[in-house]
Write a structure and sequence with these properties.
- The protein is α/β, with parallel strands linked by helices and 203 residues long.
- The protein is built from 6 helices and 8 strands; from the N terminus they run αββββββαααβααβ.
- Helix 2 packs antiparallel against helix 3.
């Protein structure tokens, strides 16, 4: 989340990291995942931190980053930098929303469940269900897709791991019954799990 882009309310969606990362402008901080704008300062409660931070701006330039107490506004310490991670698994950019609409618009004509999802997309709702992730993302990925070719992966009790994956996929399949939404559209199957090029198993 960079500089003043977070408060650029008139900017295109791609220029609003706070919104696309799942942060809610709550007027005042209300726990992780919220932010508020107070004059030339932005208070943010990052989802990856146990404390909120205040970003003080001088014009369009970030002047100071401070850790503070939300109850009193008292500064605890100054920070040279801060990493603010998303609080949702997928970014709701204009491109992602358009991709999702295109993916389900045809089937939504005859599928009540997907028609409801399409309505959620079209009313500009910020609270989209997790199952929309498969339509918002360009592709699904497994852990192994993020590992380098020489990474070593250690699987603890791999048989239990596979059994749990099979059970979870079976439960998800049951939840999809009656919706006409194939579970394969939403989640990777257990046979697609990838733990990298060098997995090692322990008993």
């Amino acid at each position: 989340m960079s500089d003043a882009e977070v408060v650029e309310e008139s900017a295109p969606e791609e220029k609003k990291p706070a919104r696309t990362m799942g942060y809610e402008n709550s007027g005042k901080l209300d726990g992780p995942g919220t932010f508020s704008v107070q004059g030339g300062a932005i208070d943010v409660f990052p989802g990856n931190l146990a404390y909120p931070v205040r970003l003080d701006f001088f014009g369009d330039e970030l002047d100071e980053i401070r850790r503070f107490l939300p109850s009193t506004g008292q500064t605890i310490s100054s920070l040279k930098q801060v990493d603010i991670f998303p609080v949702r698994e997928f970014a709701q950019t204009d491109a992602a929303l358009l991709r999702a609409k295109r993916a389900i618009s045809k089937s939504a004509e005859t599928n009540a469940a997907q028609r409801e999802l399409l309505e959620r997309l079209e009313d500009d709702s910020h609270e989209l269900p997790d199952l929309m992730a498969a339509y918002l993302l360009e592709k699904t990925a497994a852990v192994g897709d993020y590992l380098s070719a020489d990474a070593l992966t250690v699987l603890i009790e791999p048989r239990s791991l596979v059994d749990d994956a099979l059970h979870a996929y079976d439960e998800l399949s049951k939840r999809c019954v009656g919706t006409s939404i194939p579970v394969s559209d939403l989640y990777m199957g257990p046979n697609e799990l990838d733990f990298g090029a060098n997995p090692r198993a322990t008993r």
